[in-house]
Amino acid sequence: MTTSASSTSNSGIENILMEGSPIRTLVDGVLKDGSSSELTTYIELFNQFYPFLKTLTDSIDPSTGEILKHVDYSYCFYDDHKNPVLCFTADWTFIIGFHSEQFSDDDRFYNLTVTPYATMHVDFSVNTYTGPAKIAVGPSIEFVHFRAPISFELETRDKFCYSGDLNIKPISLLTTATAEFLECEITIPEETTRCQWDEGVGAKIFEVLLTEGYGSTLLDRVCFDSN
Predict the structure, then answer these.
(1) What is residue 18's predicted lDDT score, i.e. its pLDDT?
(2) What is the b/e burial string over 199-212, where b = at least 16 CB atoms within 10 angstroms of the residue's CB?
(3) Can you tell me the distance from the alpha carbon of 44 to that of 112, in angstroms, rounded to the nearest whole number?
(4) CA distance 223 to 163
(5) 160-172: per-residue pLDDT in tens?
(6) 135 strand-pairing partners
(7) Over the stretch 85-111, which tens digit does the pLDDT of each residue have?
(8) CA end-to-end span of the chain, whole Å?
(9) What number of other Cβ atoms are within 10 A of residue 175's Cβ?
(10) What gap in Å lies between CA 197 and CA 214, rounded to an integer?
(11) Which residues contact 83 (CB under 8 A, 6 or more apart)?
């Protein structure tokens, strides 16, 4: 959708910038915060699509950039030498933040894209230790995967456009298996030993989508020509 700068386009601007709209939230926040790490604007935008999580986002300090909330629990059985043999773990993670990028190419003079995002998932695993190997199997449930890229661009020096998309991935259940191996270094002549688990390898066993994903146009593409 392309609109010229006229009385019709001015009416369109008023509708787009109406109180409570996503673009109004974004513009107000940019003008108010003036900080590339301030999350207030993006939390407000997130709450428009996930109002039932507002209690969770109310506890977030918006001035610290990307927010990570993390809770984990682990219970292990040990051998006679106090080495872990079998462990059960549960892990809950919630991340909300944004990233931005700017570029120019053959199709546009300048583009700035700001992408608020959020993810929330719970992971369970059973870990068994056999000598220098650690095997883990368990499910992971992703409840939230939200992205809302909003683009502002100058197609030419006289033509300004903006647009926005919304992408919400389905709630999914994923089960994986991973294997890690112990790597050790021996320092000579000090004869000290330093060991650590490598990054390991993993494989997806199965994945089930529990809901349908959702994608839509958050903001229709609108352009204004100053000529």
Answers:
(1) 53
(2) eeeeeeeeeeeeee
(3) 20
(4) 9
(5) 888 888 888 999 9
(6) 128, 179
(7) 889 999 998 888 877 787 777 777 788
(8) 18
(9) 15
(10) 39
(11) 129
Q: Are 117 and 96 in contact (CB under 8 A)?
A: yes
In this prediction, residue 149 carries a pLDDT of: 85
pLDDT digits (tens, 9 = 90+) for 50-85: 888 887 777 777 666 666 778 889 999 988 878 788
Q: Yes or no: say if 97 and 65 are a contact pair by the CB < 8 Å rule.
A: yes
Structure tokens at 44: 């407000």
Whole-number average pLDDT of the chain: 76
Strands (E), the chain: 67-78, 84-105, 108-130, 133-147, 150-156, 159-168, 172-187, 192-197, 201-209, 214-225
Residue matched to tokens 């996930």: 50
